[in-house]
Write a structure and sequence with these properties.
Elements lengths: L4 E5 L4 E5 L10 E2 L5 E4 L6 E5 L4 E5 L6 E6 L5 E6 L5 E6 L4 E6 L4 E7 L2 E2 L11 E2 L1 E6 L5 E6 L4 E6 L5 E6 L17
Parallel strand pairs: 12-13
Antiparallel strand pairs: 1-2, 2-3, 4-5, 5-6, 6-7, 8-9, 9-10, 10-11, 14-15, 15-16, 16-17
Length: about 190
Protein backbone atom coordinates (compact mmCIF):
# COMPACT_ATOMS: atom_id res chain seq x y z
CA UNK A 1 0.00 0.00 0.00
CA UNK A 2 3.01 2.31 -0.28
CA UNK A 3 2.45 5.56 -2.16
CA UNK A 4 -1.30 5.33 -2.05
CA UNK A 5 -4.29 6.25 -0.04
CA UNK A 6 -6.44 3.68 1.71
CA UNK A 7 -10.07 3.09 2.45
CA UNK A 8 -11.17 1.02 5.45
CA UNK A 9 -14.16 -1.32 5.35
CA UNK A 10 -15.02 -2.77 8.73
CA UNK A 11 -17.98 -4.76 7.40
CA UNK A 12 -15.75 -6.68 4.99
CA UNK A 13 -12.62 -6.52 7.21
CA UNK A 14 -10.50 -5.07 4.44
CA UNK A 15 -8.40 -2.11 3.37
CA UNK A 16 -8.69 -0.93 -0.22
CA UNK A 17 -5.65 0.83 -1.68
CA UNK A 18 -6.48 3.84 -3.87
CA UNK A 19 -4.03 5.23 -6.42
CA UNK A 20 -3.81 8.97 -5.58
CA UNK A 21 -3.00 9.89 -9.20
CA UNK A 22 -5.88 8.07 -10.85
CA UNK A 23 -8.36 7.63 -7.99
CA UNK A 24 -8.80 3.99 -8.97
CA UNK A 25 -9.17 1.38 -6.23
CA UNK A 26 -6.74 -1.51 -6.04
CA UNK A 27 -7.22 -5.02 -4.78
CA UNK A 28 -8.61 -5.14 -1.19
CA UNK A 29 -6.30 -6.46 1.53
CA UNK A 30 -7.78 -8.49 4.39
CA UNK A 31 -7.31 -6.81 7.78
CA UNK A 32 -9.28 -7.61 10.94
CA UNK A 33 -11.62 -4.79 12.06
CA UNK A 34 -10.00 -1.81 10.26
CA UNK A 35 -12.06 0.93 11.93
CA UNK A 36 -9.46 3.69 11.40
CA UNK A 37 -6.00 3.61 9.83
CA UNK A 38 -2.92 5.64 10.75
CA UNK A 39 0.78 5.50 9.83
CA UNK A 40 3.54 6.10 12.37
CA UNK A 41 5.53 9.29 11.64
CA UNK A 42 8.66 7.25 10.88
CA UNK A 43 6.72 5.24 8.27
CA UNK A 44 7.67 1.91 9.84
CA UNK A 45 4.16 0.79 10.82
CA UNK A 46 0.54 1.14 9.90
CA UNK A 47 -1.76 1.28 12.94
CA UNK A 48 -5.31 -0.04 12.71
CA UNK A 49 -7.80 0.94 15.38
CA UNK A 50 -9.52 -2.43 15.80
CA UNK A 51 -12.37 -0.87 17.76
CA UNK A 52 -14.59 -3.95 18.13
CA UNK A 53 -11.59 -6.02 19.28
CA UNK A 54 -10.37 -3.52 21.93
CA UNK A 55 -6.92 -3.38 20.40
CA UNK A 56 -4.57 -1.51 18.10
CA UNK A 57 -2.90 -3.60 15.41
CA UNK A 58 0.56 -2.69 14.12
CA UNK A 59 1.00 -3.76 10.49
CA UNK A 60 3.71 -3.75 7.86
CA UNK A 61 2.88 -0.49 6.00
CA UNK A 62 3.54 -2.04 2.59
CA UNK A 63 1.99 -5.51 2.84
CA UNK A 64 -0.50 -4.82 5.68
CA UNK A 65 0.56 -8.06 7.36
CA UNK A 66 0.06 -8.09 11.13
CA UNK A 67 3.22 -7.52 13.18
CA UNK A 68 1.78 -6.95 16.66
CA UNK A 69 -1.59 -6.60 18.40
CA UNK A 70 -1.77 -4.35 21.44
CA UNK A 71 -4.73 -4.81 23.78
CA UNK A 72 -6.14 -1.50 25.04
CA UNK A 73 -7.75 -1.07 28.48
CA UNK A 74 -10.83 0.68 27.12
CA UNK A 75 -13.82 0.26 24.83
CA UNK A 76 -14.13 1.94 21.46
CA UNK A 77 -10.54 2.84 20.58
CA UNK A 78 -11.16 5.29 17.80
CA UNK A 79 -8.92 8.17 16.65
CA UNK A 80 -5.36 9.18 17.44
CA UNK A 81 -2.58 11.62 16.76
CA UNK A 82 1.14 11.61 17.51
CA UNK A 83 3.32 13.82 19.68
CA UNK A 84 5.59 16.19 17.77
CA UNK A 85 8.59 13.87 18.19
CA UNK A 86 6.55 10.83 17.08
CA UNK A 87 7.52 8.88 20.22
CA UNK A 88 4.02 8.78 21.71
CA UNK A 89 0.43 8.82 20.45
CA UNK A 90 -2.82 9.82 22.12
CA UNK A 91 -5.86 7.71 21.25
CA UNK A 92 -9.52 8.30 22.09
CA UNK A 93 -11.73 5.60 23.58
CA UNK A 94 -15.24 6.71 22.75
CA UNK A 95 -17.18 4.16 24.81
CA UNK A 96 -14.99 4.53 27.92
CA UNK A 97 -14.81 8.33 28.14
CA UNK A 98 -11.02 8.13 28.19
CA UNK A 99 -7.78 8.85 26.35
CA UNK A 100 -4.73 6.60 26.12
CA UNK A 101 -1.11 7.68 25.93
CA UNK A 102 0.80 5.09 23.91
CA UNK A 103 4.56 4.60 23.65
CA UNK A 104 4.75 3.85 19.92
CA UNK A 105 8.19 2.21 19.99
CA UNK A 106 7.40 -0.21 22.82
CA UNK A 107 3.76 -0.56 21.67
CA UNK A 108 2.42 -0.11 25.20
CA UNK A 109 -0.23 2.00 26.86
CA UNK A 110 1.65 4.10 29.40
CA UNK A 111 -1.21 6.19 30.83
CA UNK A 112 -5.01 6.47 30.83
CA UNK A 113 -6.78 9.82 31.27
CA UNK A 114 -10.48 9.71 32.19
CA UNK A 115 -12.49 12.64 30.83
CA UNK A 116 -15.91 11.81 32.26
CA UNK A 117 -18.57 9.16 32.72
CA UNK A 118 -18.58 6.61 29.91
CA UNK A 119 -21.39 6.16 27.44
CA UNK A 120 -22.02 2.79 25.84
CA UNK A 121 -23.54 4.00 22.56
CA UNK A 122 -23.85 7.20 20.55
CA UNK A 123 -27.08 8.75 21.78
CA UNK A 124 -28.23 12.34 22.12
CA UNK A 125 -25.53 14.22 23.99
CA UNK A 126 -26.29 14.16 27.74
CA UNK A 127 -23.87 16.99 28.53
CA UNK A 128 -21.97 17.74 31.73
CA UNK A 129 -20.17 14.84 33.38
CA UNK A 130 -20.31 12.49 30.41
CA UNK A 131 -17.62 11.91 27.82
CA UNK A 132 -17.43 10.32 24.39
CA UNK A 133 -14.09 11.48 22.92
CA UNK A 134 -13.74 11.35 19.16
CA UNK A 135 -11.16 13.05 16.95
CA UNK A 136 -7.70 13.90 18.34
CA UNK A 137 -5.38 16.53 16.81
CA UNK A 138 -2.06 17.93 18.00
CA UNK A 139 -1.69 21.72 17.82
CA UNK A 140 0.69 23.20 15.25
CA UNK A 141 3.18 24.09 18.01
CA UNK A 142 3.09 20.50 19.38
CA UNK A 143 2.03 21.54 22.89
CA UNK A 144 -1.69 20.75 23.06
CA UNK A 145 -3.88 17.86 21.96
CA UNK A 146 -7.38 18.96 20.96
CA UNK A 147 -9.99 16.26 21.61
CA UNK A 148 -13.54 16.54 20.25
CA UNK A 149 -16.14 15.17 22.67
CA UNK A 150 -19.65 14.50 21.37
CA UNK A 151 -21.15 13.78 24.81
CA UNK A 152 -19.57 16.71 26.66
CA UNK A 153 -20.41 18.95 23.67
CA UNK A 154 -17.02 20.54 23.21
CA UNK A 155 -13.26 20.28 22.96
CA UNK A 156 -10.79 19.16 25.61
CA UNK A 157 -7.35 20.77 25.60
CA UNK A 158 -4.79 18.23 26.83
CA UNK A 159 -1.15 18.99 27.65
CA UNK A 160 1.01 17.03 25.21
CA UNK A 161 3.89 16.97 27.69
CA UNK A 162 2.08 16.14 30.94
CA UNK A 163 -1.01 14.39 29.51
CA UNK A 164 -3.49 16.21 31.72
CA UNK A 165 -6.54 18.37 31.07
CA UNK A 166 -5.73 22.04 30.62
CA UNK A 167 -9.30 23.19 30.00
CA UNK A 168 -12.58 22.48 28.23
CA UNK A 169 -14.20 24.64 25.54
CA UNK A 170 -17.96 24.24 25.08
CA UNK A 171 -18.68 24.31 21.32
CA UNK A 172 -22.11 22.72 20.83
CA UNK A 173 -24.05 19.48 20.65
CA UNK A 174 -22.34 16.48 19.12
CA UNK A 175 -18.80 17.85 18.64
CA UNK A 176 -17.11 15.16 16.57
CA UNK A 177 -14.14 16.05 14.36
CA UNK A 178 -11.56 18.57 13.22
CA UNK A 179 -10.36 19.92 9.92
CA UNK A 180 -6.81 21.23 9.71
CA UNK A 181 -6.30 24.23 7.40
CA UNK A 182 -4.01 23.74 4.42
CA UNK A 183 -1.34 25.90 6.05
CA UNK A 184 -1.36 23.60 9.09
CA UNK A 185 -1.80 26.59 11.40
CA UNK A 186 -5.60 26.58 11.74
CA UNK A 187 -7.79 23.91 13.29
Amino acid sequence: MARCCGSTTTRDSSLTPIDPRTGKPGRPVGVADPYNLYFTPDGKSAMVMAEAQDRIDFLNPHTMKLRHSMHVPCAGVNHLDFTADGHDAVASCEFSGALLRIDVRSRKVVKVLRLGKAMSAPVMSPGHGYSMPQDVRLSANGKIFHVADMAANGIWLISAQRFRVLRFIHTGVGTHGFIVGRSGTYL
